[in-house]
User: Fold these one by one.
Assistant:
Number 1:
Amino acid sequence: MLPRAKKQFGQHFLTDRHYIDRIVTAIAPKTEDVMIEIGPGPGALTAPLLEKLSHLHAVEIDRDLGAALRTRFSPEKFSLHEQDVLAFDFAVLASRFRCVGNLPYNISTPFLFHLGEFADELIDATFMLQKEVVDRMVAGPGTPDYGRLSVMLQYRFSMARLFVVPPGAFTPPPKVDSAIVHMTPLPANRPTADDNVRFAAMVTAGFGQRRKTLGNTLKPFISATQISACDIDPARRAETLSVTEFIRLSNVKV
């Protein structure tokens, strides 16, 4: 019997065996992997993952679910960390790890930014999120879904949407479709900003008023003349810029 989903945690429990199997196949766990599951809930993914892994770490904030998981799975194979994943220090578990999970809709974006801080230690991640969020994550310049989330994640990760999971696969069913996304950190020799804080601030400013031109939105950081010197028209809008172009603007010396 499934536990009652708690609204404050944004819980929707995956119950459809077909999609559970598809997700595990997409993750392709190997025995020796150091893997961390986010929000295991009642353990729909936990159980099949443990059939393939020698050990699994899980982060769960709901203490009622945590107690049930501790009873169900052996501590020799399963380590539960009962805390808020937005404050979780992934680096304390291993120098290299993989991450999976059915992310609660209400924390998905802040969690993705938090995980980005550990990109150097992350091997890859496979997550289920609201389809709308996944579409924004993988969107390209000039498309309606392209925005701050797209740029900030594509700065650190290569991402692909794998498949859609319908509401009926969950209990209780959400009001929207979900989707599976696979994320792989980009190599160390990728284009990078000289100052990540400045880069993030410029991206935020650029998309803060989408209808305004770069010459206006980026005025606190860089002049229209400097934008032109980067071979970028200051009359363009942020939604047309590639990640590399944002990096170029961020690296202008002021």
Number 2:
Amino acid sequence: MHIELSGDVVKEIAQKYGNVQKGTGGMVRGALIETGARKILNQGISQGINQGISQNQRETALRLLERGKQTIVEIAEDTGLSVKDVEQLAGL
């Protein structure tokens, strides 16, 4: 299962983790909570970075398509997108 988390959700999870860690005192070992919370936080950060890159690639591809001076394959090569992604952006 792949779950996408926005930056706000990741921040909220991190805040709740901090509150849980404070509230449990010495009853729960930090490593058990930290492992799950850090994993979710790192996934959210990674997804946010990937979405940003992907969005920039798509915007660049759309600008290149609008200019009409390059082929689909050239745009895919220049943006790092797949030919299929560029074709979808072009409405093909």
